[in-house]
Each structure stands twice: as C-alpha cells, then as structure tokens.
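This is your field. Have a critical look at the following sequence-structure pair:

***
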Amino acid sequence: MAASYETDTDTEAGTEASEPRERDAPEDIVLEAPANGLAFHPARNLLAAGDVDGDVFVFEYSCREGETKELWSSGHHLKACRDLAFSEDGQKLITVSKDKAIHILDVERGRLDKRISKAHSVAINSLLLVDEHLLATGDDNGGIRLWDQRKESPIMDLRHHEEYIADMALDPAKKLLLTASGDGCLGVFNIKRHRFELLSEAQNGDLTSVTLMKRGKKVACGSSEGTIYLFNWNGFGATSDRFALKAESVDCIVPITDNLLCTGSTDGIIRAVNILPNRVVGSVGQHAGEPVEQLALSHCGQLLASSGHDHRLKFWNMTQLHSVVVDDYRKRKKKGGQLQALSSKAWGMDDFFAGLKEEEATVPASVDNDEEEESEDSD
C-alpha cells in the first residue's frame, strides 16, 4: 500500500541543498493501483484516495517540494473502494466499496470506528454526505439508501433507476437528492419526506456525473457520450440545453465557480468548460493517454486533484480559472483551432499523444482543439 512522489525539478546534480522549492501545485503521488475515489478535507491540507484494491490513503499535501507525505492507509475493505468523503467537521472519513460495506474512519488515527458490512445487497458505487449525521449511498442496481449514522438500518430505501448510480448531488436546502444513473436518467428524491419524485427522460448513453451550477438554477450532467446535459431547476423532466464536447466521454465533473466546471474524460484530458454561454475554455491538464477517473476541488478552491488509470494523483493550480470571463458573443471557430492551456503542466497535443515522457517544468502554451458544441445557449 506504499505511495511514492514525483518531482519535476530540473536542478543540476551536485547543487547544494537549499530551501525546498515552492511549486504552484503539489508534486504527483504515485499509487500501486488506480484510485476510484478522491476527497479533500474541508479545512486542512489533506487528500483522501480510495483505490481499486480496497485500500484507503490519507495524504498531507504541500506546494513545497518534498513535503507531501502519506499520513496513514487502511486496508479494511475487501474489494475496490468506490467513493469516499470527509465529514463536515473533518474528523471522520466515510468510504463505500464494491464489497457492499460502509466504513467510518477516524481521520487523526486512521482507525476504523464503524462498519456496516451489508449496507446494500449489491456493490455500492457512490456516496454523498447530507449533514453531520445523514449520508446517501447508491448501488450498482440503481438502489438509493439514506442513512443516519446513529442507526444501523437505512431510514430510506428506494429503487427507481434501472442501472447503477454513478453520482449524486444535493440542493442547498438539503431537501432534494439528484442522482445520475447508467440508465441515462436524472433522478430526483425528496430526502426530507423519504420519497421518490421523478425521473427525467432517458438521454443518450450513461449519465456519469451531476452537479449544480448558476447558483442552483441549473443542473449539469456528464455522459458517457461526451455530452453535458443541462436541466432547469424544477424542470427535471427534460433537458433545457446540451453541450457536446469533442471528448470520448465526460466521466466526472467538479464545479469551480458558478459558471465554470472541470471535466475528466476517457481521453485523459481535463477540460475547463463554461456553462451558458457554453464554451470549452481550455485544458487544465492530462493523464497521459489514460482515462481520468475522478476529480476533486480543495477547500481553498485553488487546487484541483485528479486520479487516473496511470496510478497517479495529480494536482492542478486553479488560480487562473477563477478570473475567467466568457463573452456571450460566439466567435467563428477556425478549423483545427487551438485550445488554451490553463496550467503550466498542460501539454501540447504532440506531447500528450506521445504520452511517454515525464512532465517538464516548461511546456507548450496550448493544446489542439476543435471542440464543436451542440448548444442553444439558453438562459
């Protein structure tokens, strides 16, 4: 369960040791297996990762060279850890697994405090914390369960999806639970009243991810077909807009601002995408030739973490994205136009598809792009 760390220093051999170099993002962490789940601590510089072997790691990260370190690891899950999240106070880490179990771990000691060994009848795929006591879980058969951590049995148990629950989101009032499913539908569940509300029309491909945008007025869903579907709040039956990226898929999404989100895809590229007007702003970074499995945003909002099939946890500096403003005016696209690189570690396309060399401190300024979109840019 060991992890290693990779730097991109280009100091000459024999250079006298000095103060650790300050980076714009922590160095990569290399695991022995790909990580399915990623979560940042709500207040401290801690990142948790759960991998396909069932191991859970907590790292303390730093932008100072050589100071990122593993605090502890846990091998209590029997199968892949699919998702995890820190509690609101940061004292607990909750994990779910293909082994059907929910684990609650003490963050300081890495000790297993509680195990619900048969939380679902099939593998659990997703997790969402509602508040300090409540959490929701979704399984491979489309089942949704709501748990009070003070009790042993679920307080809500519903199944209205026909396929796996890929992701879940919650409205600010913590009343409605939104679910993205492999059946192509967005689900709406009232967790205050413990009841099912509705399913949307089925979209093309699996819905892989879901998040709220535009101060909660819009819901964005990623799909296995590379399209972002948009729903109006309280208009969940049918999409209000759609945005097709030139990407193999949109496997995970994380909101950066009210208008901007980042997507991870099977092609390995992490894209920054503005919502309404719908634009691909640029490339944040990449996992060389390997699918991006998960994305997470730090508590300070300045760092994005990504996990990929290359066994790496990578960090990306988000400072530039917070100042991005996208004009409503749509410029005519040039054939084979360029997509702006939004971090110092975003490669040019030749480097990306070569995919065999290490990241360098100095990189090309842009990556190739002709991101066509199908979009009405509605309000």
